[in-house]
Task: inverse folding
């Protein structure tokens, strides 16, 4: 744990960082074209550290303390920061679960928070920037039909690995994964939750996850349902 100063868009901010390695201290976070592309498919802000090339994922407060002071205090400051329920910590905990299940995720550089109530960018996650990748949606769109089936099979294998480890993804869709030219899947949004007890309850939770309407169209979702059902029944 280390308290360090981070420049975000030219403004100096103090963050309490965990899993910190001195050689990877974020010095100057700035946006570029890569940031804007990422922000088109995500709800967070993205920056790059100019000295190390690390990717920074920043989550801002939901409420404005001037317009909604009570909601801001209870949700954004008391719960998220003082009780350590901020986004970067939740994502790091999920990332460790996902990696332990055998899925590929970017390496973490550091994660932390700002305790300054006047800094709306309270949550900060710094991770390895994976080069030469596209979103799962972009990769899938560029494939022929046979290659799409092969890709979906790899995708389902990863989802089943997670299920076998006792977890299910909270928001399963193709923009939460990146793909290398080889077709390898890198999981970048790793928010997961434990599966319930009981085999039928587990399957219902998995089914809800793979029924996300943001996860491709009806035809391909049905293919995923059928494939996952076979995997689940096979034990």
Result:
């Amino acid at each position: 744990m280390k308290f360090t100063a981070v420049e975000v868009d030219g403004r100096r901010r103090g963050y309490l960082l965990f899993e910190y390695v001195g050689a990877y201290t974020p010095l100057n976070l700035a946006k570029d074209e890569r940031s804007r592309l990422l922000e088109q498919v995500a709800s967070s802000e993205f920056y790059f550290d100019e000295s190390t090339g690390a990717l920074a994922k920043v989550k801002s407060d939901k409420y404005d303390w001037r317009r909604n002071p009570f909601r801001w205090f209870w949700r954004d400051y008391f719960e998220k920061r003082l009780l350590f329920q901020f986004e970067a910590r939740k994502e790091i905990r999920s990332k460790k679960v996902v990696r332990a299940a055998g899925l590929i995720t970017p390496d973490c550089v550091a994660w932390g928070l700002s305790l300054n109530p006047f800094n709306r960018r309270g949550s900060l996650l710094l991770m390895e920037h994976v080069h030469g990748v596209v979103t799962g949606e972009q990769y899938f769109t560029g494939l022929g039909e046979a290659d799409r089936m092969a890709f979906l099979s790899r995708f389902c294998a990863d989802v089943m690995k997670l299920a076998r480890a006792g977890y299910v993804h909270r928001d399963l869709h193709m923009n939460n994964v990146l793909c290398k030219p080889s077709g390898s899947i890198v999981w970048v949004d790793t928010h997961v939750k434990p599966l319930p007890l009981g085999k039928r309850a587990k399957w219902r939770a998995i089914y809800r996850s793979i029924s996300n309407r943001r996860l491709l169209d009806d035809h391909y979702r049905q293919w995923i349902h059928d494939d996952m059902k076979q995997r689940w029944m096979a034990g």
Notes: The radius of gyration is 19 Å. The mean pLDDT is 90. DSSP finds seven helices and twelve strands in the chain.
